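RETRY 2/3 - previous attempt timed out on the joint model. Re-submitting the same 883-residue input unchanged.
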Amino acid sequence: MSVESLFPRLEALLPKVQKPIQYVGGELNSTVKDWDEATVRWALMYPDAYEVGLPNQGVQILYEILNELPETLAERTYAVWPDLERLMRAEGVPQFTVDAHRPVRAFDVLGLSFSTELGYTNMLTALDLAGIPLSAADRGPDDPIVLAGGHAAFNPEPIADFIDAAVLGDGEQIAIAISEVIREWKAEGEPGGRDGVLLRLAETGGVYVPRFYDVEYLPDGRIKRVVPNRSGVPSRVFKHTVMDLDEWPYPKKPLVPLAETVHERFSVEIFRGCTRGCRFCQAGMITRPVRERSITTIGAMVDNGIRESGFSEVGLLSLSSADHSEIGDVAKGLADRYEGSNVSLSLPSTRVDAFNIDLANEFSRNGRRSGLTFAPEGGSERMRKVINKMVSEEDLIRTVTTAYSQGWRQVKLYFMCGLPTEEDVDVLGIADLARKVIQAGREATGSRDVRCTVSIGGFVPKPHTPFQWAAQADHETVDRRLRELRNALRNDKQYGKAIGMRYHDGKPSIVEGLLSRGDRRVGKIIRAVWEDGGRFDGWSEHFSYDRWMACAAEALDGEPVDVDWYTIREREEHEVLPWDHLDAGLDREWLWQDWQDAVNDVEVEDCRWTPCYDCGVCPTMGTEIQIGPTGRKLLPLTVVS
Amino acid sequence: MAQRLRVRYAKRGRLRFTSHRDISRAVERAVRRADIPVAFSAGFSPHPRISYAGAAPTGVASEAEYLEIAVTRPCRPQELRAALDASLPPGLDVLDVVEARAGSLADRLEGSLWEVRLPGADPAAAEGAVKEFMTAGEVAVERLTKKGMRNFDARGAVVSLTADQDDHVEGGPNQSCVILRMVVRHETPAVRPDDVLMGLRLVADFAPPSPPSVTRLAQGPLDASTGEPADPLEADRVGGDQ
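RETRY 2/3 succeeded.
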């Protein structure tokens, strides 16, 4: 069955919408394969606006890998803005891919990458526009398998009603394996229909099919147990880990959009995983162990990426890039190679030490020294011990003194508010720290021309972290602490004018908390919010806290649970958590012990440099940390004019 | 700076939805991929010295867009044409490159020839509206600009305007398509094809049933004898060895 391009019908709508270029595709390095020559067809969706979704590395990597397979094709689709959604509904134009403008419902798989839970309502818009039933149970043989991945998929229970399957962890190898299962199932004449192929996927132990598991509840609302409801389905589903990143040097052909996007640069992931053990950080927990790309692969990927894309900025990505075992040589090598050219390098940095400034100095050889960013995360020494962010005030002051004295004029500091055990004094400590930073800067430079911006995010407890049992702070408390902090900074005659403060109110964090640690009962809320018009929840101009609360009250009516129960309630050690049957490799007892250590201000060391702290990932998964040194140096590859 | 090169390029098909900013980003990246030795401005944040003249609006296709690139060492125009074209996405197509030899390019872009296709429009009504419009002394229209609603005359800048019928249209013989051709002088405020369409609606209640598809066919110095824009790169070609 061939499918026709929807473009002629879409084209008539484009003159009436904002930024039509985001819907037309045709990006450099994009691929359109012959529909009839493929047997397995993937539509990959990043469920947010194109400008956010296009730069997403996960989607770009899978798009390229799947299109390299001979019998497989992959196209991309993004959330359409409400102006186009209205016109598509009026004209009956379904959700389309931007590559060949094929209808999403015609594909075999709709793969969604959820970096955040706030994309759930956008998934429902896309399903509905595509003509795919919202409930997985209502889908038939002509509907794609709706497959969730990304960090939020480590607890897919709130969207269990809407997805057919979920995959945890790195997508490269499992996407290929899934394609192969579907190809074989099709070649055999699709035995067992939809359930047949889902069962084959579930039996691998690497694909979670929610409807093959029953959730039983206790009278008080807690989960009693989660059990497979048919034979052959494993009781636990494991995450996927690509062990040798040098074998997967993607993206090789980075997508270069015509439309403006949030990241206008070529990004190279220099390692995956993180061993710092920050207790609030879900990414750091679920991506273990650390696997570094070698200095030679990084060098080759940067060179290739610039030539293929024409971007003038290169970002070296990871959860803590300065921790790469050979980052000094990487930085110097790249700075040497691109010295005098108009290629700039950036390193999202969070380490608070002088070494970080050396790196920043290397990377700013071609340009200006404007701002440096550090993330102490907690405002007081005690708070930083609770979250295991091992930065002392002395470290921070010494580091910013070096930065200011070497010509950097602006320091940005990231913090969180609403952390477990937090008290008002911990948040007010942010003001003290910022004052000391400015004081140090003025002394180091002898000038008043130094600035510090504190940026504060609301803490949301996440699954598979030591804080998964913690009570989230209510939004009134968060807002009050932020208000007091703002007043403290405003009223400071001596330093206040040199300190900027950025923050959001606490309400969106409550919704994020509900979706992060929710169970299957939360699905009804998501659906009700979407039916009431909820879209683009990650955008403050579209997000409505009141709508979420009203829909939650209605959807949970008659249940023994409510929003507070999901968010501001602390869990007991043995409570069955909605994601306990999904295995991120972390030992539950270790997580609990680390949670107890947090409450008692006990820190753990980084296992990259010190002995193992027994999180359980390596033995459970048969993996180990993969780091240098390789002893190689990065020599300039090409003479840049 | 060693040389300035003037480039004519087209914006075709679905890439007509690119905005001016989208195009400038795409060109900067293409220049880098093609290894063109573009000159950079001095200062705190250097940017490539590429300038654009008279860009067509978002959603409008064009066969005649112009830009100028300054390079640090001399380039052969034909080589630059091929390299830049290969590095731009299909739909942004480089048509012609000449070395700048004389005067300002922007000053030569006096007017544009536009083609406006109106699928499903009534040919007789279109012809009547064109006649009304051309005999009017002034047709005041309004358009929402960044500075708010602006009122201006859409008639004065129109040098010529004709309506024809295209019989070779997809969708069968009953699907008529009216083609407007207009030469419009570049003035301030700029009069665009959609302003002329609004004028046709105001003078004769002529409203096409579906969105117009607009293409700029040419822009350049207005030729007194033909009344149409001539090739603006001709002055650079004269005496040149291309």
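Chain A has a mean pLDDT of 93. Closing ticket.
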